[in-house]
Amino acid sequence: MKPARTWVTALICGPVCAVALAACTPVPDLDSTIAPELLDADYPPLLPIDRLIASGPAPELEARAAEDELQGRLDSLRRRAEALDGPIVDAETQARMKGGVGG
C-alpha cells in the first residue's frame, strides 16, 4: 500500500470507528430524574408579558443597586490594599535584624 493511501484510509476509518463506538454507548434514563409528583403536574399558566415585566424591579434600579454594592466592595478592597501597603517589618524589628543574632 502506498503511504498516501494509508493516510487517506486512516482519515476515513478513524472518524467512522469513533462514531461507531459512540453509538454503542447506552443512553441514560432521563425520565427517572423527574420527581413523580411532577410527572402528572399541570403546565404552569401562561402570563402576559406586561405582567411579567411589571412584576420585577426596574432594570435601572437593579443596575444601580449592583453598582452601589460593587463600589462598596471596591472601596473595601482598596482600604485593605492600603493597609497592606505599609512596611512588612516595623522599624524597631528591622533595626534588631540588622544587628544580627548576637547583637
List the helices and strands and how they pair.
Elements: H1 3-23, H2 36-39, H3 49-55, H4 59-84, H5 91-99
Give a written overview of the molecule.
By secondary structure, the protein is mostly helical. 65% of the residues lie in helices and 0% in strands. It contains five helices and no strands. It is flat. The mean pLDDT is 83.
Features:
5 helices, flat, mainly alpha
CA-based gyration radius: 34 Å
Beta-strand portion reads: under 5%
- Give the CA-CA distance, first to last residue: 84 Å
- Structural class of the secondary structure composition? mainly alpha
What is the molecular shape? flat
Poorly predicted runs are none
Largest sheet: none
Signal peptide: 1-22
Keywords: Signal
Give a concise summary.
Keywords: Signal. About 65% of the residues lie in helices and about 0% in strands. The chain has helices at about 5-25, 35-40, 50-55, 60-85, 90-100.
